Amino acid sequence: MAGRTKKLTTVSYGILGLLGLRPHTPYEMARQFSRSGTFWASAESVVYNEPKALVAHGLATAATETNGGRRRTRYSITPAGRRELRRWLADPAVEPQFQFDAMMKILFSDLGDKEDLLGAIKAMRAWAERTQAGAAVITHDYTTGTEPYPDRAHIVGLTQAYRVGLAQMTLQWADWAERQVRNWPDTRSGPDPTDLLTHLGTGRTPW
């Protein structure tokens, strides 16, 4: 769009998408990000500030309202915002960019000790368990009629199926990885990796 000075991010489009469903307050948007953050994880401060940037670009509007004596801002999408959202939806999707702190620690664990490595694996397991629990909450809300977007169950079902599958795979990997590492003398030496790498080269997982 002419005059736009800031490149929109995945978070920007996530917020535009929410506004495309209906007007939202920053609190409501932050809640949705926290509920399904596997795909669009972001600091809460970013979720609160990004709508202001969308307003500056003419993609959203802001209206102040009072509720019980408290003032809050409710954002709505503009026609220009809908056009930009539609353009983004039609564009080819870029590759995912994963930033797993625990997995990075596993990658460089031979520079640390075995307990550090086991701790990182434990963190991956904990993330997967939280992800499964979050998906269960969303499923419960849809099945009990308490979900704020009840007519989107078919779309949410697609994304939640991937989310649950990713969590299940991570849990299986964590169990397997922990069994492997516990048999290592330390992080700088382990079993001959030839068999494992050959197995992975076939496109199959060892767990």
Could you explain how this protein is built, in words?
With 207 residues, the protein is mainly alpha-helical. The chain has two domains: 10-90, Arc Repressor Mutant, subunit A (Orthogonal Bundle); 101-202. Helices cover 59% and strands 8% of the residues. It is built from eight helices and two strands, in the order αααββααααα. It has helices at residues 10-21, 26-35, 44-56, 79-90, 101-107, 114-144, 153-182, 194-200, and strands spanning 60-67, 70-77. The protein has a two-stranded antiparallel sheet. Helix 1 (10-21) crosses helix 3, helix 2 crosses helix 3 (44-56) and helix 6 (114-144) packs antiparallel against helix 7. The chain is elongated, with a radius of gyration of 22 Å. The N and C termini lie far apart (48 Å). The model has no long low-confidence stretch (mean pLDDT 89).
Note the topology:
Elements: H1 10-21, H2 26-35, H3 44-56, E1 60-67, E2 70-77, H4 79-90, H5 101-107, H6 114-144, H7 153-182, H8 194-200
Antiparallel strand pairs: 1-2
Helix pairs in contact: 1-3, 1-4, 2-3, 5-6, 6-7
Question: Which features does this protein show?
Answer:
single chain; 207 residues; mainly alpha; Arc Repressor Mutant, subunit A; two-stranded antiparallel sheet; 8 helices; 2 strands; 8% strand; WH_DNA-bd_sf
Structural class: mainly alpha
SSE series: HHHEEHHHHH
How large is the share of residues in beta strands? 5-15%
Number of separate domains: 2
Strand order of the largest sheet: 1-2
Q: What is the overall number of helices?
A: 8
Average pLDDT, all residues: 89
Count of individual beta strands:
2
Provide the gyration radius in Å: 22 Å
* Share of residues in helices: 55-70%
Distance between the termini: 48 Å
Quick one: overall form?
Answer: elongated
Protein name: PadR family transcriptional regulator
Domain Transcription regulator PadR N-terminal: 15-86
Domain Transcription regulator PadR C-terminal: 102-180
Region (Disordered): 184-207
